[in-house]
Design brief:
The structure is a homodimer. Chain A has helices spanning 106-111, 113-116, 120-142, 181-191, 228-249, 251-256, 273-279, 289-303, 354-363, 372-375, 392-400, and strands at residues 17-29, 34-40, 43-49, 59-68, 76-87, 146-147, 153-154, 166-169, 172-176, 193-201, 214-223, 270-272, 307-311, 334-339, 342-350, 385-391. By secondary structure, chain A is of the alpha+beta class. Chain A has 2 domains: 7-87, OB fold (Dihydrolipoamide Acetyltransferase, E2P); 120-149 and 185-408, BirA Bifunctional Protein, domain 2 (2-Layer Sandwich). Chain A has an 8-stranded mixed beta sheet, sandwiched between helices. In chain A, strands 1-2-3-5-4 form a 5-stranded mixed barrel. A 3-stranded antiparallel beta sheet of chain A has the order 7-9-8, with no helix packed on it. In chain A, β2 and β3 form a beta hairpin. The radius of gyration of chain A is 26 Å and the shape is elongated. The relative contact order of chain A is 0.11. The model of chain A has no long low-confidence stretch (mean pLDDT 95). Chains A, B: The record marks 73 as: Important for tRNA non-discrimination. Chains A, B: It catalyses: tRNA(Asx) + L-aspartate + ATP = L-aspartyl-tRNA(Asx) + AMP + diphosphate. Chains A, B: It comes from Nonomuraea diastatica. Chains A, B: L-aspartate binds at residues 159, 202, 346, 350. Chains A, B: Residues 181-184 are annotated as: Aspartate.
Chain lengths: 420, 420
């Protein structure tokens, strides 16, 4: 490996001659002195010299003597540097990476993602996302979950019916999976508690700030629950673990973005759907974005919580595999988790008896033929179980205050965008 | 949550009345006494009673008094049990799950995966895979890598040209990504060191024991390397971390399968391709499976290592983005890692200068048009870098001695199989 110290470690090498390596983040050539700011994966470091400097985004190794300098990033700089250029750019970035704010529109940023993401503010959400996923896995590993990997190519477009991408699968029609729902349920029969972090695909024909054609779904499913409340308790732990991981692994990225990391209450407040309707003076069978915002405001005001569970959504609005509330038929054991005015997670208890699946499909006017692979698990004895799915990009956007989900996705895919 | 103790914890509750929950793994009704073996995610537990017992794969809660019993799994059993049935199967499994070996052919097993994977020997490889992936991430996190998630839908079929799945992408043609190669290289410009664990797709028209249409690729890529040897050093760490994780997290699964976990030498032996040719008396520009086996035997004999790096494969046999060996043009800075006679990992140093990409494509008679999104990263200054990709299922198969990769994949996808 190129022998180097990281820019964040300069202070530990005061007085020594060391080599750093990275990209020229900024050069400033004054009359008698020049400043070279080098960016590596840990931050920025400055070198001071009298010579001509390579241009921005050149890849350099800089060897110099670590010297205290209050104006330098981190309080130290390299003096008397020797500079070796490892690679030179042949194009200038579409905007200056060294300015505090990226001076470009979102389409320009996305068209130039390979270089735009080098901007510290554009990179930061991806650091936060990585930390969040690590916390999700850590928490569930600690609770006895097993990680699974399920097929993204499926033989029938059954789960939601619409908005699937079709594939030519060796001359046969197939589809990209919209979720690992069926497989993760089947795997409850094997491991009791499973999770998957992976891509899911939605052929969303709408151009919105909240939807992508591909996103990263954090899915969990667990057996031997009493009802949906046990699933909610696990989700609470996962959410707390994700945020704790951001605090531990990506604090500076969060600080750079001015993101306030929420506290997760020991018990997240939960209200029934009918209560949510009453609070928002609605009789609609689903909650609108405006109602979700009002409910989040209510939870903050009444419970001091940025999180709110809404439980018991009407069965008619939930997928056929949803378990009804035994005490209030017509209402489900399904829930959403709202965070800062937005639905962030959907989950619930599922049906577990084969006969209940047959009946649920019949009630929706469907036969079991298209679901044979799925329903097989339930013919062999499945425990009461439930789970949830959380969209990573939506979580990251909500946490960092990004208005558009594309701002927190490295290479987004949507109605118009297939590259880079 | 259903209040229960896990079967593996019975010994800690000797003399107490506790509840376990799981599936009826086996029932044996003798004249005066019946044995009920319950399977949960931690193992097996036995209850002894005089009553009639629910059938295999019934989901049960069993409350009884924990009593020492040398013949019982774990040395303890539940006596005077009350049994509650949570769910009953409506079909018998296609083979007995309680027999030590699954008594079914591979097609039967795959057709009935949701129940077949409940067999301890069929579940074990998936436990080992999960442990391996956890170790992979742990190791790379510790080395300053950042996890990324890249698009699985791409606009052009450029990386290898053949064997891609076509998608109807909002009326436009698109393709399933064969690897995150291009994106992970671009992200070296952002994070220097990145990894991804995710699905990749190959429209393999051949029906072999080594290939699937979808598999889980463990990809890593890192910048500021001197050459491919730095990449090999990181791969060595990742491999050791994966195996250490299996020892720590899935030792009983490995023991059940009789899998011998290899030692990873502090430095894995490495030989140049020309030396590999000489040792196998070959002049072919690539290594055949038979040669790979002979080389592995040689490494074990000469170096006591089950791992062997072969470096310097001819440029003509490697992808266009491969970095040549500056000292021996015609040979590459690419490598394979052989393990127990099989190529397990492919990697190498990549080109990093934009002009070198243009020249490499021209030398293969290709223009840059189809690669624009990819090549963009290299116009902005990229450090010397390299990486590798490891197929999770192939790793698991090799480690557990599975003859067919489908034996270690939950729901495999191939030429013939799209369900379950």
């Amino acid at each position: 490996m190129i022998s180097r110290v990281m820019s964040a470690e300069l202070a530990e090498h005061a007085g020594q001659r060391v080599t750093i390596a990275g990209w020229v983040h900024r050069r400033r050539q004054l009359k008698s002195v020049s400043f070279l700011v080098v960016r590596d994966r840990t931050g920025l470091a400055q070198a001071v010299t009298a010579r001509d400097l390579p241009g921005e985004e050149s890849v350099v190794e800089v060897t110099g003597t670590v010297t205290a300098s209050p104006q330098a990033p981190g309080g130290f700089e390299l003096v008397a540097p020797e500079i070796e250029v490892l690679a030179e750019p042949c194009t200038a970035p579409p905007f200056d990476l060294y300015r505090p704010e990226p001076g470009a529109t979102l389409p320009t940023i996305l068209d130039h993602a390979p270089v735009a993401l080098r901007h510290p503010r554009l990179r930061a959400p991806l650091e936060i996302a990585a930390a969040g996923v690590a916390g999700f896995r850590e928490t569930l590993d600690g609770l006895g979950f097993t990680e699974i990997h399920t097929p993204k190519i499926v033989g029938s477009a059954t789960e939601s019916g619409a908005n699937v991408f079709g594939i030519d699968y060796f001359g046969r029609p197939a589809y990209l999976a919209q979720s690992p729902q069926f497989c993760k349920q089947a795997m409850v029969g094997v491991f009791e508690r499973v999770y998957e972090v992976g891509p899911v695909f939605r052929a969303e024909p709408h151009d919105t700030v909240r939807h992508l054609a591909q996103y990263t779904s954090l899915d969990a499913e667990l057996g031997f629950v009493r009802d949906h409340r046990d699933v909610m308790a696990v989700l609470r732990e996962a959410m707390a673990g994700m945020l704790e991981s951001v605090r531990r692994r990506a604090a500076s990225a969060a600080a750079l973005l001015g993101a306030t990391l929420p506290e997760v209450p020991a018990e997240i407040p939960a209200i029934h759907f009918t209560e949510a309707q009453r609070l928002t003076s609605s009789e609609e069978p689903d909650l609108s974005p405006a109602q979700e915002r009002r409910l989040s405001e209510w939870a903050l005001r009444e419970h001091g919580s940025e999180f709110l569970f809404v439980t018991g959504y009407p069965m008619a609005k939930r997928p056929f595999y949803t378990h009804p509330d035994p005490a209030r038929p017509g209402y489900s054991n399904g829930f959403d988790l709202l965070f800062r005015g937005l639905e962030l997670v959907t989950g619930g208890q599922r049906l577990h008896a084969y006969a209940d699946y047959v009946a649920a499909l019949a009630a929706r006017g469907e036969g079991t033929e298209a679901y044979e692979g799925y329903l097989q698990a339930f013919t062999y004895g499945m425990p009461p179980h439930g789970g949830f799915a959380l969209g990573l990009e939506r979580w990251t956007a909500r946490l960092t205050g990004a208005a558009n989900i594309r701002q927190v996705t490295a290479f987004p895919r949507d109605l118009h965008r297939l590259s880079p």
